[in-house]
């Protein structure tokens, strides 16, 4: 696919390193759990103190925030495989979707944290260590629940686009893109 509108990258690893793959798949597992719990838990507006699925949702969300932040630091430190041969428009779309997913992976749990603080809930990292309060009880942060939910839905749509693109690469282009993250 050597055409004028393709980019070819050289001198990059063929696969992601073990730590990158670990962080990626750990985030995938936690996101699957988080989205399922988010859909199954009771309406947060009716909950006075987090318990049951709401407490699990907060604990997993805070763990995801820390793990994803660590992943971002690792992304900056390591050399990633290049995108291989790819049309400029596909490369642009990949950069936009990845950048948006990364931003939402930080924004969604932060909005959830602020929302929980605004409700007067104690937020604990992985349900164990108490985190600092950034909003006071009954503040405007309590109204961020809709933003949290909406941004989570947008994140799930972007993840769906990401999975679809991997499928197209694997089945349509047959370029074994998926192998780099396995």
Tag the structure with descriptive keywords.
4 helices; mainly alpha; 4% strand; 182 residues; two-stranded antiparallel ribbon
Report Rg: 19 Å
- DSSP helical segment count: 4
* Low-confidence spans: none
Beta-strand share of residues: under 5%
Instruction: Trace the largest sheet across and list its strands.
Output: 1-2
Structural class: mainly alpha
Summarize the biggest pleated sheet.
Answer: 2 strands, antiparallel
What is the H/E order?
Answer: EHHEHEEH
Report how far apart the termini are: 24 Å
Share of helical residues: 55-70%
The coarse silhouette is elongated
Estimate the mean pLDDT confidence.
89
Q: How many β-strands, per DSSP?
A: 4
Transmembrane segments: 21-41, 53-76, 88-114, 152-173
Domain Cytochrome b561 bacterial/Ni-hydrogenase: 15-182
Subcellular location: Cell membrane
Keywords: Cell membrane, Electron transport, Heme, Iron, Membrane, Metal-binding, Transmembrane, Transmembrane helix, Transport
Structure description:
By secondary structure, the chain is mainly α. It contains four helices and four strands; from the N terminus they run βααβαββα. The strands form two sheets. A two-stranded antiparallel sheet has the order 1-2. A two-stranded antiparallel ribbon has the order 3-4. The two termini are 24 Å apart. The relative contact order is 0.14. The model has no long low-confidence stretch (mean pLDDT 89).
